[in-house]
Amino acid sequence: MPASSLDQVVSLCKRRGFIFPGSAIYGGLANTWDYGPLGAELKNRVKRAWWDAFVRCRQDMAGLDTAILMNPKVWEASGHVSSFADPLVDCKKCKQRFRGDKLLEEKLGVEAVAVLKIDQVQPMLLAENIPCPACGSCAWTEAKRFNLMFKTHQGVIEDEGSLAYLRPETAQGIFVNFKHILETMRPRLPFGIAQIGKAFRNEITPGNFTFRTREFEQMEIEYFVDPSGDKKMHFDEWKAGVWEWYTQLGIAPDRLRVREHAKDELSHYSSRTIDIEYAFPWGWGELFGLADRGDFDLAQHSKHSGEELTYTDPDDPKKKFMPHVIEPSFGCDRTVLTFLLEAYTEETLPDGESRTVMRFHPRLAPVDVAVLPLSKKEHLVAKAEELYKKIVHETPLTVDFDVTGSIGKRYRRQDEIGTPKCVTVDFGTLGEDEKQGDKDTVTIRDRDSLEQVRVSLGGIVDALSAAR
Ligand code: ATP
Question: For residue range 89-126, what is the model confidence (pLDDT) as tens digits?
Fold first, then answer.
């Protein structure tokens, strides 16, 4: 069973060093979060698993890492300056501000709200008698469009000429480099360009831990296809591929669902969009989006920059056209949160003791192996250190070394951070106690089955590598 409440995971994350509240010693900064040592490792592994699956292991994909600050004309061309906005409503009583559509969604569902026009938000809030989450009254102002882009200034003069935006999505960095990729990589359609990076949105109501924050990471792909070909096939392949990626890494399929956007809910640039949603403790929420963006972005950038952004068919140089794009867009932090929620398990062991265990997929677990000397006896610790060094040097595994506390406590600690294997060095290993095991053997304990097997020191590297 995954976590039944968000608080269970928030508290474990803080206690064990996955995620801390941001700027905590200064009283915090609302809804900012810092990844601690284990969280940073978990997040890196999520990104690595994503990059491996969708970039490294594919011939048709190339990776990029583009700048956060871009020429402001990019955001005019993309439509973000004019229309990247959410409906903001104020509570007339307590003056707090909220996203009107999200307040309605909780009662009416995403589908019903997505089709609302801005001037329908306030009447609907009043008709449905939706109270202010802060003070409980139902007195709403008319909804205003609130642009979510963070503004900043480049250089020493703060005027209109130096205005810049923190990018609200990583996708545009891909589109503006389309020509560079064509020129340097000479790809053939269909091909994709991927990148992982920070995005910033001045969200009206951030919340639910790292689910909605103002600074977050995305993992995005723009997959360029021939518009005269089978776009539906590419779309469906991505849908299936992403579903498989999530489920293979441990998300239970019955806690995932696909939500197809209704025609009147689609963004102006999209002819088809689906979301993959996860059953978060507070309800279904978007984890991933897949959109058919047509040639909207390339056409806009071509028009605004004056550059020709077309693809020439290498087999028929007379055939020049603007590819269409299928966009698989992942939220990295939401994905990490999902893996945390899904891994969280509280259970009672056969001996009656209870434990909290993070059942991460072995590829995602921030620590692969813990080496634990059975006691603090100096020569036993020295032997365990030797083994620790061997595993670190002969494998790419991340290894923890822990001597403090009883062995039971140390197992529980490793369970709580999701370490798949614990290796215990005991007096049998030293040839001093046959009852514990043969000389030059150690015990490997499995996090999930709790099975303990005795393995020779010579075979330990193979045994641990195979387990991953
Ligand atoms: P939402 O409807 O939740 O605001 P969105 O449809 O605006 O999301 P997209 O623009 O499609 O989101 O962004 C792609 C992905 O980026 C989302 O599926 C989500 O995982 C992630 N994402 C978007 N906004 C945030 C945020 N404020 N905090 C964390 N992740 C986010």
Answer: 999 999 999 999 989 988 888 778 878 889 999 999 99
Tell me the Ramachandran region of residue 384: left when phi exceeds 0, alpha when psi lies from -120 to 50, beta otherwise: alpha
Q: Please, are residues 204 and 189 in contact by the beta-carbon 8 Å criterion?
A: no
Cβ–Cβ under 8 Å, residues 447 and 453: no
Specify the residue with its C-alpha closest to ligand 1, atom 14. Answer: 329
Ligand 1 pocket mutation pick from 32, 286, 325, 335 by most atoms within 8 angstroms of CB? 286
Cα of 288 from ligand 1 centre, angstroms = 8
CB 77 within 8 A of CB 305: yes
pTM of the model: 0.93
Comparing CA positions, the residue from 371, 380, 384 lying closest to residue 419 is: 371
Which helix or strand (DSSP H or E) is residue 285 part of? strand 283-294
- Please identify, by atom number, the ligand 1 atom nearest to the C-alpha of residue 275: 18
Domains and CATH numbers, the chain: 6-74+148-340 (3.30.930.10), 85-147 (3.30.40.230), 367-467 (3.40.50.800)
Total number of residues shown for the chain:
468
- Taking CA atoms only, the protein residue closest to ligand 1 atom 9 is 289
| Residues 243, 194: Cα–Cα separation, whole Å | 18
- Give the CA-trace dihedral at 57, 62, 63, 67, to 10 degrees: -170
Q: Please identify which residue in the block is written with the tokens 């299928």.
A: 326
Expressed in angstroms and rounded, the spacing between residue 7 Cα and the centre of ligand 1 is 22
